[in-house]
Amino acid sequence: MSDKQDSKNVEDIDFLSSPAMQKAIRKTKRKQTIKYVIITVLTMIILITGFFSSSQYLINKRIEKEDSTMFDTVHGANIQASGGGYNYDLFSVTSETRYRKTIGDRTILWDIKREKIPLFGRKETLESGNGMVEVNSLNKSAQRYVRYNDLNNERKIDFYYPGLSYDFLPNELKIATGLDENVLIEVALSFNKPMTITEVSKQLGHDNVNWLWVDTTSVAQMKRMEKELDSDSNKTKGGGGAFGFDVNPEYSYSEKNGQFFMDTMDQLSQTDSHKRSIKEALKGINENTQSTDGKIRLNGAVVTGTSAELRRFQNLDFIRASVLGATIDKY
């Protein structure tokens, strides 16, 4: 057989159709498919991980911006944020915050708030608890509307502004000092006139004093309330909406506490979601401190303790009104 004939016979052979070649091709395709699947899966994992990490980072940054913990240190009479947590989803986080009141050496649960903070969009309140919901009823013996916390059925405190006229000024310290000695009691005290921290520290002392109410109301606001509000219940300041700060009953407070309060307020006015109300309060404070050489003024205080411990606050001539708040068994 000639070389020409051998070449022709080789060309006539179909190598691609041979079983061995088909098997090799299928094996190569499987390897490529597996390789592409692995690459795709790894790429997706990296992308999802990166996206989730970026999402959590942005959500955490928003939590820092939306976090009201610092606001709670200057707002709400004798109410402190205590405990809670976060539950993360891909595009949002659900936060839970618990609020408590300190009465003597014990605390009581005052409210539970749950909020949904999305990656984009507005924060949504899912549950405000019942603590901020109030039940109003006209108490004939108290001669005023008494408000109750719907979560624990405890009485809410109210303050009475110095300078406003009222039909009736309660003196519920008398009730508090007559309660059982095994009961811890919260009482809101309202002063006859605004006083500096130094003046309050000298006259009220620090024992059993838990919280101080800062004067944030401008002269124009006071005149408007006097002129437009016709009932005592409309002219009181609910404890939950009052500005002020905690003090430790075991230590004396001073103007340094006031400076820390002002520093916090200034910071919140720039970054906090409540900056509108903060700026309004600062406007009133700045107006009121012109007569006190820049020192903030106090309109009242929250005191707590047993009936025996609270007796020292009776008959102090600078106390205009006193309102009984929450109570708890000592033991």
> How does the overall form come out from the CA principal axes?
elongated
- Gyration radius, to the nearest Å? 34 Å
Task: List SSEs in N-to-C order.
Answer: HHHEEEEEEEHEHEHEEHHEHE
Helical/strand content category: alpha+beta
Counting DSSP H or I runs of 4 or more residues, the number of helices is: 9
**Strand order across the largest sheet:** 11-9-12-8-13
Overall helicity: 25-40%
Task: Give the low-pLDDT segments.
Answer: none
Which band does the percent of strand residues land in? Answer: 25-35%
What is the residue-averaged pLDDT? 85
Can you count the beta strands? 13
* Distance from first to last alpha carbon: 117 Å
The biggest beta sheet reads: 5 strands, antiparallel
Pfam families: Sigma_reg_C, Sigma_reg_N
Keywords: Membrane, Transmembrane, Transmembrane helix
InterPro entries: Sigma_reg_C_dom (IPR025672), Sigma_reg_N (IPR029101)
Domain Sigma factor regulator C-terminal: 179-325
